[in-house]
């Protein structure tokens, strides 16, 4: 009796072992095939292997965690990407899009990682992350009052670069300096200058996107419908946003920020009316 139970356990153990081995082989072979696809769809002059992190790479966890901005999703039980691609070159992004389609692997695009639900780095299905933090250049023209800003830049970097060149220009966007341009401008963007200048997207005049076919498009070539969609509708539904061209706005060289807490019973309205008109707008 005892030995038959022992054999039953032994058999089920080997069955489990066999199943997990064949599952791992299947998983490995599709994973290998995906890596091969990335290699073959990118330029040899810009090797994609230099920007690929699989769980086998010692830096995988550090790269993954550096843009997890909601620590609720920094847990061992949080689903992990099969791969993180820290794109350095346009061909890396094009390869990611094309191979994701060929292999049916979900691609999550991450810029600043501030999505409240972790939508840029968590998924219920097998996925990989296209990380945009290397695409963070900011080119400002004070002469034209415009700037091209890449998706991986943060709002703080945008404000800083503008302030470096002019103390009478700014850009209406969010308050938190580590929020990413990619998600923020794709979704709207509100902040302290909203009353005077509206949302970030009210001040975006051009964009560069790589679409599902790997084509690099600007506003003229993508058309007004797609441009409208990626300036408020969330970029990731439509492609990978590379950069936005923004219209700088005029700001006073000195801005005073203060907070006064008063209820109506404490003559709130008197205080508002005693302020100069320019301040009242803020109040
Ligand atoms: C602490 C904190 C403060 C905030 N403050 C403000 C605020 O003051 N005002 C305000 O309006 N909002 C604010 N937000 C919300 C924030 O603007 C949004 O969560 C925004 O989507 C974050 O952008 P991200 O690039 O950092 O996020 P990510 O998590 O990287 O991306 C957010 C979404 O956009 C997609 N996406 C990212 N990059 C690209 C790209 N290059 N191309 C296509 N799709 C892309 C992602 O796939 C994901 O779906 C705040 C959020 C946090 C966590
Ligand atoms: C995948 O399989 C190949 C051989 O088929 C092996 O060399 C490689 O180490 C495996 N990789 C992983 C991550 O298991
Ligand atoms: C990750 O590890 C693989 C295998 O060792 C290596 O080929 C690749 O260059 C590593 N990636 C990075 C970004 O170091
Ligand atoms: C995320 O989790 C890892 C592993 O537990 C930890 O080392 C890291 O400090 C965490 N990140 C933050 C910002 O707390
Ligand atoms: C400013 O705009 C003009 C006219 O469109 C253009 O020729 C010039 O290159 C722009 N300057 C910068 C620095 O972008
Ligand atoms: C800014 O200029 C540099 C150098 O000309 C260029 O490589 C980069 O792509 C530009 N960035 C943007 C967002 O246009
Ligand atoms: C509110 O204003 C009225 C009239 O100006 C004044 O009499 C009263 O003392 C004020 N109340 C407070 C709380 O300042």
TrEMBL record:
Its cofactor is FAD. Coiled coil: none annotated. Gene3D superfamilies: 3.30.465.10, 3.40.462.20, Uridine Diphospho-n-acetylenolpyruvylglucosamine Reductase, domain 2. SUPFAM superfamilies: FAD-binding/transporter-associated domain-like. Transmembrane segments: none annotated. It comes from the Eukaryota. Keywords: Disulfide bond, FAD, Flavoprotein, Glycoprotein, Signal. The keyword Glycoprotein applies. Residues 77-251 form the FAD-binding PCMH-type domain. Residues 1-26 form the signal peptide. Belongs to the oxygen-dependent FAD-linked oxidoreductase family. This is FAD-binding Berberine family protein. It comes from Forsythia ovata.
